[in-house]
């Protein structure tokens, strides 16, 4: 039986850690189920009551998360059969990703601010905001200060997840528009959207480069770029030397999403090991060390740990 406390060893030449992460987290329902699980929801009926999700989609996502060792199915009653879904060590390790999503939505999606949970740091006794920092020097780190190069298992081809999830039916699509983290889902809740955002963070700016790097159909790239510009995370500009060429650059809002990306990459690097080595090698330019993402409390500056954080649901 697979052990949820140890990393998954990937096959040589297969989809790398980035692609595996995007295949899991680049799905809106998976993220929403995980968010609920990390705040204490364990039973099917609770997930169903909390989320605008159909029975078939919820069943599929719970099975996926169980197969991928983020949740563990525990039968607590046999007649009739009843089971609960408990977060494993691998699932709990996603708390920095969820905190980063909540913090980004709080600052950049005004209509969502009152609906987000309060993050309380038990160590210092204050409500807090997580600050992305470099483990080596302890300083806060912005996207402009983090360099990224492909590692031994890294390439665009190997970083795009295998296969697409089942397309949601019109009824499912309509129900989710009631709106749980809609802007985050636009960026991160689709495998191609999250891959394109990753390319933007690595410096890709031209349409043809997005298309060739991701191996995605032109219509899909155009649709995602249009959606990102409408959301305000990218802006289209003219190339200084070729006015007929459009370039797509990250805005301040787009750059502010970097902690979500950094936390996700960190999680992927730990839990999915390719025999060739890591997919990405990150460096913190100011101190010159390898960049290992940590999160600190903006109130006391102490490093955050999952067992010292309380999540208080919005009233």
Short description:
Residues 149-177 are annotated as: Disordered. With 315 residues, this protein is α+β, with helices and mostly antiparallel strands.
Explain how this protein is built.
Residues 149-177 are annotated as: Disordered. This protein has a domain at 95-312: Arc Repressor Mutant, subunit A. It has helices spanning 17-25, 28-38, 44-50, 55-67, 89-92, 95-108, 156-159, 170-176, 182-188, 191-201, 207-214, 218-231, 252-255, 258-271, and strands at 8-9, 71-78, 81-87, 118-121, 126-127, 130-134, 146-150, 234-238, 246-250, 272-273, 280-284, 293-297, 309-312. Residues 164-179 have low confidence and may be disordered. Helix 1 crosses helix 14. A three-stranded antiparallel beta sheet has the order 5-4-13, with no helix packed on it. Strands 1-10 form a two-stranded parallel sheet. A two-stranded antiparallel sheet has the order 2-3. It contains 14 helices and 13 strands. A hairpin with a 4-residue loop joins strand 4 and strand 5 (126-127). The radius of gyration is 20 Å and the shape is globular. The chain is α+β, with helices and mostly antiparallel strands.
The H-and-E topology, N to C, reads as EHHHHEEHHEEEEHHHHHHEEHHEEEE
CATH fold description of one domain: Arc Repressor Mutant, subunit A
Low-confidence stretches: 164-179
Mean pLDDT across all amino acids: 88
Secondary structure: number of strands: 13
Helix segment count? 14
CATH class type of one domain: Mainly Alpha
Structural class designation: alpha+beta
Order of the strands making up the biggest sheet: 5-4-13
**Proportion in helices:** 40-55%
Largest sheet: 3 strands, antiparallel
Q: Termini distance?
A: 41 Å
CATH arch. level architecture of one domain = Orthogonal Bundle
The radius of gyration over CA amounts to: 20 Å
Look at the structure and name the CATH superfamily of one domain.
Answer: Winged helix-like DNA-binding domain superfamily/Winged helix DNA-binding domain
Q: How big a fraction of the residues is strand?
A: 15-25%
Shape descriptor:
globular
Pfam families: HxlR
Protein name: Helix-turn-helix transcriptional regulator
InterPro entries: HTH_HxlR (IPR002577), WH-like_DNA-bd_sf (IPR036388), WH_DNA-bd_sf (IPR036390)
GO molecular function: DNA binding
